[in-house]
């Protein structure tokens, strides 16, 4: 006797209310259903159903056995689903968001590899420097730079990022370099003001004791674009503060240099952020794993440039 098949037959009889309906649901003949039930009762040495010509009703022993069997079958079905999910390739839609420059320079390389490995994925990537609500916006995962506020979201820190003040060699030849961060209040600087948050208009440092302090630079230009600020900085219009990844290529090429000896630039955490989901879909696990590895690799590749230039 196939014990599992007999148990499924018994449950079907109870749920359908008759052996005839159970046979129809299972796609078996009625004699086969009757025989399966009889063999199960014989093996258990107990009557599970009181049968009449019209219908069957559970005996007290049968009622307990029915509930136990339902629980066991549910657990078995769930276990089989987990195995199938583990074997299936991740597929479906995932929506990501990241800062514009970070997405173009650091996140992008991992996305191509992700789609190559998992062709069933469909990515929607929104690059924006505007603050977004992940839940209201329907985002699955976000990349964030900086300290995170309490939000009820799940965060995983995957790296750190220095910020640094840079200038073109031509500007340094013309006005010199600041001896201390406070000197930036008298030198031409470029401010970055994205989403009116003014993060780029007040520059943050640490003193020798590790205590944070701020400097308000002499901003002769204020813009809402990192790309524009970097171009103006390369052209010698002023000193500018950037995250290190934003100027790694320029530092390596020598078109920009980091100024201030041992300035105590703060390190900003780089994090992945996502709404809690139980269980987490396989596509989400794949995306998080792949972009974390990709971002770490890109940051390692860039690190030599900013360490060499004082980051």
Descriptors:
alpha/beta, Arc Repressor Mutant, subunit A, D-Maltodextrin-Binding Protein, domain 2, nine-stranded mixed β-sheet, two-stranded antiparallel sheet
Supply the CATH superfamily name of the largest domain.
Periplasmic binding protein-like II
Mean pLDDT: 86
In N-to-C order, the SSE pattern is HHHEEHEHEHEEHEEEEHEHEEH
Which range does the strand content fall in? 15-25%
Tell me the Rg in angstroms: 32 Å
Second-tier CATH architecture of the largest domain: 3-Layer(aba) Sandwich
Q: How many β-strand runs?
A: 13
> How many domains is the backbone divided into?
3
First-to-last CA distance: 73 Å
Q: Quickly name the level 1 CATH class of the largest domain.
A: Alpha Beta
* Main beta-sheet annotation: 9 strands, mixed
